[in-house]
Amino acid sequence: MNWMEDGYMRLQYFSEIVAADTRRKEFDIRNHSLIYKGLRPDFLFIGDSITHYWELAAYFHDRDLLLVNRGIGGDTTTYLEKRFYADALQLKPEYCIVGIGINDSIDLEGDYWKRLKPAPYEEVLERAQGNFEKIIKKAEETETTLILGSLLPISIPVSLNEALRRRYVCELNHWLMDTAQKNKLIFVDYYRQMIQPESGELMEGITYDGLHPNGKGYEIMADVLKETLKKNEIYI
């Protein structure tokens, strides 16, 4: 899976076609640059496309901090757990902000063209929870402070199982909140600030496509993150 080179871990490609490989060479080179220069990130963001597309410098620029983005569009909890040391922990960030899990719910859809049946709901949820537990365990063995972010609300009418995916989002968010509390971690609840209070539906005008935030959506996320961290005397 990996090997050590010049004092840093370089991750090999996985043996199947997965999103986590799409930025593998890029991240190996970027990771080596940080380690070679002896730079420790203040905040490292890691996750899927919602992290990948977050233009961090546009929202976090008031303080002289080293912010590193290790998001990969399409990534899942399974492969983030596998790359977590290489793309996060070996860089020794002071804080690591994790945002992952929505792509796991794609398995609830199945795949007509590949003739794959929808995966059982409990199997998908429990797999994601298990991967989070492994991620938390890995972080516990380091000096990095782990911060868990909620999944975002979705509005994807073309989804064959949108109701089930919404249930998954809510149940995983509740589990993440409880797990953060049990493990004395910080939980950042983006979800609650991105829904309409009366209906519980996704707020209008804050996403590009019903899933990925637009500029306004990311502003909401940035404000929620800043406020949550401030309550814990952490400033970004």
Description of the structure:
The chain has 236 residues and is of the alpha/beta class. Helices cover 38% and strands 13% of the residues. It has seven helices and seven strands; from the N terminus they run ββαβααβαβαβαβα. It has helices at 24-36, 49-52, 56-59, 77-87, 121-140, 162-182, 215-231; strands spanning 2-5, 8-11, 43-47, 67-71, 95-99, 145-149, 186-188. It has a five-stranded parallel sheet with strand order 4-3-5-6-7, with helices on both faces. The chain has a two-stranded antiparallel ribbon with strand order 1-2. A hairpin with a 2-residue loop joins strand 1 (2-5) and strand 2 (8-11). Helix 4 (77-87) packs parallel to helix 5 (121-140) and helix 5 packs parallel to helix 6 (162-182). It is globular. The mean pLDDT is 94.
SSE order, one letter for each helix or strand? EEHEHHEHEHEHEH
Mean pLDDT: 94
DSSP strand content: 5-15%
Strand tally, please?
7
Structural class: alpha/beta
Radius of gyration: 17 Å
Biggest sheet, open or closed, and with what strands and sense?
A: 5 strands, parallel
Instruction: Give the proportion of residues in helices.
Output: 25-40%
- C-alpha geometry: globular
Number of helices: 7
In oligomeric terms, what are we looking at? single chain
Strand order of the largest sheet: 4-3-5-6-7
Task: Report the span from N to C terminus.
Answer: 34 Å
**Contiguous runs where pLDDT drops below 50 for at least 5 residues:** none
